[in-house]
Amino acid sequence: MEERVAERLRGALGPCGFEVHAFKVGWYNAVLPPAFHLPYPDDTLAFVVLSTPAMFDKALKPFVNKERLQIIRDPVDQCVSRHLSGVKEKFPDQKVDIIFDYEILPSRKPRFLAQTAAHVSGAAYYYQRTDVKLDPWGEKKIYGVCVHPKYGGWFAIRGLLLFPDIQVPLLKQSPPVDCVRTEEKRIELLEQFNFHWKDGRYRDIIEVKETYSEEQKVYFATPPAERFKLLGLTQEAQ
Question: Where would one find the signal peptide in this protein (predicted)?
Fold first, then answer.
């Protein structure tokens, strides 16, 4: 069942520059405190959705050209919302719940922890300070970061697709690829992400097969309020 659903999702989202990776809700809930649990049975089928470097040209630009008069908030969020919501049409006989990466609960907590979902699905390895044996940071707060085996840090986690009526007790978990293998590289990755994230060097911690285009790099390096101009959108759209 999972393979049939995954195949249909890849057919719908793959050509637009998205990746989907299956997991069971129980895998996610097992590694998090109750406050962050997804409210579904453990065997519920879910997918984490990533945007790859190709999404900018294959999904965002066409979306902006077609919907420019309807864009009233962040164009990327609206584009992702349109594509993920469109998935429901591919499953007319199934309930599909969608959680976007930007959604928050009344408590101000995110509705799901994106990097944990990517890790348990096998999509990308979530490197944290616990992955470093000789921790050099003392009392400093150190945030973890996901690394994709193909794209390094040149990707984003956009949302979850959950199928409440599909239970997959036999689904086998595949661990994410541990692509930052040495202690030195892991320290370098976390140092760059926590203290030099603006220069984006952490994204190239491994040899990547594809990165953002120069146009895309400029877009995401530009303050959100000024990105509309880069896409040829008016201030009214903002």
Answer: none
Contact 84, 158 (CB under 8 A): yes
Cα separation, 11 vs 15, whole angstroms: 7
- pTM (2 decimals)? 0.94
CB 4 within 8 A of CB 171: no
Core vs surface per residue 91-123: b (16+ CB within 10 A) or e: beeeebebbbbbeeeeeeeebbbbbbbbbbbbb
Which range (17-21, 22-26, 38-42, 219-223) has the least confidence?
219-223
pLDDT of 142 reads 98
Give the amino acid at 116. Answer: T
pLDDT tens-digit profile of 147-196? 999 999 999 999 999 999 999 999 999 999 999 999 999 999 999 999 99
Compute the Cα dihedral for 188, 189, 190, 195 and give only its sign.
positive
Phi and psi, residue 18, nearest 5°: -110, 155
Taking 50 as the threshold, does the pLDDT of residue 238 lie above it? no
Q: Do β-strands 44-51 and 156-167 pair in parallel, antiparallel, or remain unpaired?
A: antiparallel
What is residue 17's DSSP assignment? T
